[in-house]
Design goal:
- By secondary structure, this protein is α+β, with helices and mostly antiparallel strands.
- Helices cover 17% and strands 32% of the residues.
- It contains two helices and three strands.
- The chain has a three-stranded antiparallel beta sheet.
- It starts with a strand and ends in a 6-residue tail after the last helix.
Protein backbone atom coordinates (compact mmCIF):
# COMPACT_ATOMS: atom_id res chain seq x y z
CA UNK A 1 0.00 0.00 0.00
CA UNK A 2 1.09 3.53 -0.68
CA UNK A 3 -0.46 6.90 0.05
CA UNK A 4 0.21 10.23 -1.58
CA UNK A 5 -1.33 13.61 -2.39
CA UNK A 6 -2.03 15.11 -5.80
CA UNK A 7 -2.83 18.74 -6.56
CA UNK A 8 -6.16 19.19 -8.34
CA UNK A 9 -7.19 22.12 -10.53
CA UNK A 10 -8.31 25.07 -8.40
CA UNK A 11 -12.05 25.01 -9.05
CA UNK A 12 -14.95 25.53 -6.66
CA UNK A 13 -16.09 21.93 -7.22
CA UNK A 14 -12.65 20.48 -6.39
CA UNK A 15 -12.28 22.71 -3.35
CA UNK A 16 -15.72 21.57 -2.09
CA UNK A 17 -14.98 17.87 -2.77
CA UNK A 18 -11.36 17.62 -1.61
CA UNK A 19 -10.56 20.67 0.50
CA UNK A 20 -7.32 22.58 0.51
CA UNK A 21 -5.10 24.62 2.74
CA UNK A 22 -6.52 27.99 3.74
CA UNK A 23 -5.26 31.00 5.70
CA UNK A 24 -6.88 32.11 8.95
CA UNK A 25 -8.93 34.65 6.98
CA UNK A 26 -10.25 31.85 4.69
CA UNK A 27 -8.28 32.66 1.55
CA UNK A 28 -6.87 29.69 -0.37
CA UNK A 29 -3.16 29.05 0.11
CA UNK A 30 -2.69 26.20 -2.35
CA UNK A 31 -4.47 23.99 -4.83
CA UNK A 32 -7.11 21.55 -3.59
CA UNK A 33 -5.40 18.31 -2.63
CA UNK A 34 -6.53 14.77 -3.36
CA UNK A 35 -5.39 11.99 -0.99
CA UNK A 36 -4.82 8.71 -2.86
CA UNK A 37 -4.14 5.30 -1.30
CA UNK A 38 -3.27 2.43 -3.62
CA UNK A 39 -2.92 -1.33 -3.24
CA UNK A 40 -0.18 -2.39 -5.65
CA UNK A 41 1.38 -5.67 -6.72
CA UNK A 42 4.95 -5.90 -5.40
CA UNK A 43 6.81 -7.18 -8.48
CA UNK A 44 5.18 -5.16 -11.27
CA UNK A 45 3.91 -2.21 -9.19
CA UNK A 46 0.56 -2.62 -10.95
CA UNK A 47 -2.21 -0.80 -9.08
CA UNK A 48 -4.84 -3.36 -8.06
CA UNK A 49 -7.20 -1.02 -6.23
CA UNK A 50 -7.28 2.56 -4.99
CA UNK A 51 -9.27 4.86 -2.73
CA UNK A 52 -9.48 8.61 -3.18
CA UNK A 53 -10.30 11.18 -0.53
CA UNK A 54 -9.67 14.77 0.38
CA UNK A 55 -7.12 16.67 2.40
CA UNK A 56 -8.83 15.88 5.70
CA UNK A 57 -9.33 12.15 5.03
CA UNK A 58 -7.09 9.77 6.96
CA UNK A 59 -4.73 7.57 4.96
CA UNK A 60 -5.52 4.73 7.37
CA UNK A 61 -9.30 5.13 6.88
CA UNK A 62 -8.88 5.07 3.10
CA UNK A 63 -6.66 1.95 3.32
CA UNK A 64 -9.09 -0.20 5.35
CA UNK A 65 -11.40 -1.14 2.42
CA UNK A 66 -8.36 -2.23 0.38
CA UNK A 67 -7.72 -5.28 2.57
CA UNK A 68 -6.00 -6.37 5.77
CA UNK A 69 -3.52 -3.78 6.95
Amino acid sequence: MDGFYLDAPDTAANRAAFGGQVAKDGTALAFPQVQVVTLSEADTHAVLDARIGGLVDSEQDLAVPLGPV
